[in-house]
Amino acid sequence: MGNTATLTKLVIIGVGLIGGSFALALRNAGLVKHIVGIGRSQQNLHYALAHGIIDEIAIDLATALHNADMVLLAMPVGQTAHVMAQIATHLQANTIITDAGSTKQEIIAAARHLLPMQNRHHFVPGHPIAGTEESGAHAAQATLYASKHVILTPLPETSTDATEKVCQLWQACGAQVSIMSADEHDQVLAATSHLPHILAFTMMNHLRHNSSDLAHLLHFAGSGLRDFTRIASSSPEMWRDICLTNREILLQQIDKYLYELKLLRESLEKNDGNTLEEIFSQAQHARKKWLKNSH
Amino acid sequence: MGNTATLTKLVIIGVGLIGGSFALALRNAGLVKHIVGIGRSQQNLHYALAHGIIDEIAIDLATALHNADMVLLAMPVGQTAHVMAQIATHLQANTIITDAGSTKQEIIAAARHLLPMQNRHHFVPGHPIAGTEESGAHAAQATLYASKHVILTPLPETSTDATEKVCQLWQACGAQVSIMSADEHDQVLAATSHLPHILAFTMMNHLRHNSSDLAHLLHFAGSGLRDFTRIASSSPEMWRDICLTNREILLQQIDKYLYELKLLRESLEKNDGNTLEEIFSQAQHARKKWLKNSH
């Protein structure tokens, strides 16, 4: 497909950890001339402008999107459909639209409803599997995507050129890009990310509800609990949106996990040491094999 | 209570990560003259001898325990009662007996059954909350207990002097020592350690059972899942024993966690975003407060 795409004008809606890091990485790679930022917090946008993450704070959507090569939607996933509706009338036919949301099927359904076919030709849904429990432009870093996975889930009507261009830009950020269906994406992420977050949040609430003195209880907690619950420090708003937009798959994942936990509970209730050891061995083996393969 | 206790002869049964690190830390502090090691793996004991963790490999229990100031039981908790039965006839009246097991009520019940009153006067059950997913003498390190918690759960018949002596030795290893009842210990550890281990092991098995290609699925997993499941790399034998010896309390903890998870599932099923966000906020708040307090 020739040389890596370059962007004359990139519009980022939601200049936080994800959008801000994309801006910094593309700037470092020398692939973007002018970046316009849009967002709900003026304070955050002024920080991004002052720190060279963006070149301009948008005055209005029409001006911002005029002659834009690409627009990145990087707000919490629950707001994406609303923002898509707002930008729909201002989009030029050749502007590439991409997003960074953690769930993909619902935003694709929204795009089918809100974007004319000429814009859907240029819509490339994406999800960078990167981030920390931090948020906001001040957390943005040029190296956030180095060696991280980015999954693109193009629609049947998305043009190959648009997908290729978005792919090249993420690769220029240092990411490994994979392409899969939105359904497969949502299944994979429900299992490897959404469910563990649910379980970590639930662990903290379980401790809260079963202790008259939580500080005393946690005083004796070791590094195991600390690592296990790290993801429970993540943004409640973000995780509300992820859960609601991947609801059906996540409900299935919770039910299957409940079943697995009940099997273990049954072995413990029966004092069945052999089965317990076998359960733990299989889990330990699977984890060790995973770590070995990922190095 | 005067100067820190010193030991002329310390016997360690089970010279692994826990027993070996206790030996190295006391040696560094200059508080022990001679350390005798006992264990089921001769290879491990020879490693410990060659690396200065112990001074002598025991020939037999009677010789090893003759004139011992203290014996530390540091094998997997499921073997502790068996070992206690073996040493009972060889113990001198003034030898302090302590252990490092992760559960305390069951070993105290065993001691009541197996040790004469004169020995129970010198029995100080203990639990250092330290360790990694590694095991064996090669993993031992003198600094393992620095700033870590050690909980002692003396019996009503344990002498204050014996408890004080064990307390001083752990403090000399750099640990913070707390004293509580065995029941409170087992409740606190079930909530903050045993349950998270159960949930992490279950997560790996859930992924195994719900994927036709586990390697492909885990290929897209981020650091969140990696940290969440770190403790699922722990020893299956050790965790079988911990579960079985803290069975009733752990079953209650599992049931309460299941209840908490079902509450969240219900909010998700009802599409109740406000309740979900509230659930996540409370969990996030509790974790942030914990981390703030622990610095």
CATH class of the largest domain in chain A: Alpha Beta
**Residue runs with pLDDT of under 50 for 5 or more positions of chain A:** none
CATH-defined architecture of the largest domain in chain A = 3-Layer(aba) Sandwich
Overall spatial form of chain A: elongated
The CATH homologous superfamily of the largest domain in chain A corresponds to: NAD(P)-binding Rossmann-like Domain
Structure commentary:
- The structure is a homodimer.
- Chain A folds into 2 domains: about 5-180, Rossmann fold; about 185-295, Orthogonal Bundle (6-phosphogluconate dehydrogenase C-terminal fold), CATH 1.10.3660.10.
- The longest helix of chain A is centred in the middle third of the chain and has 28 residues, at about 180-210.
- With about 300 residues, chain A is an alpha/beta fold.
- The model of chain A has no long low-confidence stretch (mean pLDDT about 95).
- Chain A has helices at about 15-30, 40-50, 60-65, 80-90, 105-115, 115-120, 160-170, 180-210, 215-220, 225-230, 235-245, 245-270, 275-295, and strands spanning about 5-15, 30-40, 55, 70-75, 95-100, 125, 125-130, 150, 175-180.
- In chain A, the strands form 2 sheets. Chain A has a 6-stranded parallel beta sheet, with helices on both faces. A 3-stranded mixed beta sheet of chain A has the order 7-8-9, with helices on one face.
- Chain A is elongated, with a radius of gyration of 21 Å.
- Chains A and B meet through helix 8, helix 9, helix 10, helix 11 and helix 12 of A and helix 8, helix 9, helix 10, helix 11 and helix 12 of B.
